[in-house]
């Protein structure tokens, strides 16, 4: 018997959520990873020539309460349909996430 099927029958398969909990103890890292996975799923939908309106309910079903907002799904769908290949966030201007001062050095 195929190993995943054996695990499923034995009841040892972990849910998608527990996978993230065990792999990413930091909630921010967990959220970033979920967002990245969803952007890859959107890219897949674009390659299958699915419209944003078709992609949205599929993503909602697959990712549930952790799904990107409809606006974000449509924004990423548009960018990827227009030729963007990279699903990673772009660097942003502003205050760096870590900084040093006399107090914390």
TrEMBL record:
Gene3D superfamilies for this protein: 1.10.10.1450
InterPro entries: Transposase-MT_Hybrid (IPR052709)
Residue stretches of biased makeup (Polar residues): 96-105
Positions of region (Disordered): 84-105
Compositionally biased intervals (Basic and acidic residues): 84-93
Signal peptide: none
Protein name: Mos1 transposase HTH domain-containing protein
């Amino acid at each position: 018997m195929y190993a995943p099927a054996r695990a499923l029958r034995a009841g040892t398969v972990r849910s998608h959520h527990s996978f993230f909990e065990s792999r990413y103890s930091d909630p921010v890292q967990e959220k970033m990873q979920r967002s990245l996975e969803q952007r890859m799923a959107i890219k897949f939908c674009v390659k299958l020539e699915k419209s944003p309106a078709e992609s949205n309910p599929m993503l909602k079903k697959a990712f549930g309460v952790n799904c990107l907002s409809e606006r974000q799904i449509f924004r990423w769908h548009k960018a990827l349909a227009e030729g963007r290949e990279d699903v990673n966030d772009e660097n942003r201007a502003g205050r760096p996430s870590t900084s040093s001062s006399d107090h914390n050095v």
